[in-house]
Amino acid sequence: MILESIIIAIYSIALLLIFMYALAQLNLLFNYLRARKKNSDSPTFDFSKEKEIPFVTIQLPVYNELYVMERLLDNIAEIDYPKEKLEIQVLDDSTDESFEETARHIEELRKTGLDIQHLTRKDRVGFKAGALKEGLKTAKGEYIAIFDADFLPKKDWLKNTIPYFKDPEIGVVQTRWGHLNRDYSILTRVQAFALDAHFTLEQVGRNSKGHFINFNGTAGVWRKECILDAGNWEGDTLTEDLDLSYRAQLKNWKFKYLEQVETPAELPVVISAARSQQFRWNKGGAENFQKMAWRVFKSPDISIKTKLHSFLHLLNSTMFLNILIVAILSIPMLYIKNEYEHLKMYFYVMSFFVISTIIFFICYWFTYKTIYGGGFKHFLKYSAMFFTFFSVAMGFSLHNSIAVLEGHFGKKSEFIRTPKFNISTLKESWKGNKYLTKNISPNVIVEGVLMLYFGFGMYSAFIVGDQGGDFGLFPFHLMLFLGFGFVFFKSLTSKA
Fold this sequence. Notes:
Elements (H helix, E strand, L loop, with lengths): L1 H35 L19 E7 L6 H9 L8 E7 L5 H13 L5 E5 L6 H10 L6 E4 L10 H5 L8 E10 L6 H22 L12 E4 H6 L10 H11 L3 E12 L5 H28 L5 H11 L4 H21 L4 H7 L4 H18 L3 H20 L1 H12 L33 H22 L10 H20 L3
Parallel strand pairs: 1-2, 1-4, 2-3, 5-7
Antiparallel strand pairs: 4-6, 5-6
């Protein structure tokens, strides 16, 4: 009974942590709904007066972006802003043939009168953070707009963001990500679904109540003074954006989130690219929990509620570890439930935690409805998408849990960029992309084993106990089977 007691204790703690996270999401939903009813009264620059138009530097940190550099540069060149008050820095750490092509393209753009600089370094110290920090040394702008290589801001983007800096306490203006290739595949739809929830429910829900939010690494603008006051970019975590965001807000800088300003970008179309992105984000989140949680906790200027939301925000990626624990232990728990009659009351209590899934379902419905609209047909589509999203997210739980554990235990790794494809339709192929990883991770094999394990969980529903089986966990095990199966087979075929 000792082993069973340990399993029950670990399972219960993981379920409780997931429930706490669900309650935090529910609170953000209430914040989000209230915020949508309010009109913004933020002071803004009057761009009809030339003296109120500030100097802006656009930074483009790039590294081996052969397939998207031309698209990026042509798009940025179309930004509608006075040329005499705009500088563009291409922070190029590339080591392949894209470097020469970028240099030629920049030279052509410079002939049009655009102030665009091609800045390079001898090494990639600090990776993206190091490149941004190096560019900041010579940046002429009071405000620094940052775009990754796969982002395509609209022409009026600066005119929709820079005016909010009239408030001297605003350190960052962040915009919502859009998705150029949302409907390319199940994988891109799942990624878009998750990102939409972050960029509506979470960012608005936190920002509207003055809780800490994060600059998302791209599609936002920093006040240069804010970057320097917060200690500048640091490359000791894989999510330098989250790190600097928290240091800036600890210095009492305010962030402004603009849900209404969409910045389109390309989602990874191959699972190996999505895996590398997920790994970096989740490991970086855990690294920042280790780096920032205590600073937030001991700050006398932050309310208890903001501290709690910050704590859960920094632990966001750790939820994958809790999900994996609950998933793996759910099968032993199924057998324990049907073996020990005296524990029946405990399992009745544990069934209460299914409400966590219901909370997530409700919260994500509101974010989905914001983008697609309501109605019964959209609700049916949403329900199918939610089931798909949850299944695939659980399929990623092993991969992301390893990232989280590495982050918490301080294992350092390089900043692995996400390969870009410049693909938006099924007619276009990713198979010739030179940046794709060729090797299959050993973790993929474990994911295949877990697929079979949860297949056994479904089989177990028919054989446990003496009352004709127990099907309470069958839907959960089915989603896990499909999720790990999707990740496993897609990981094998993306090497084709």
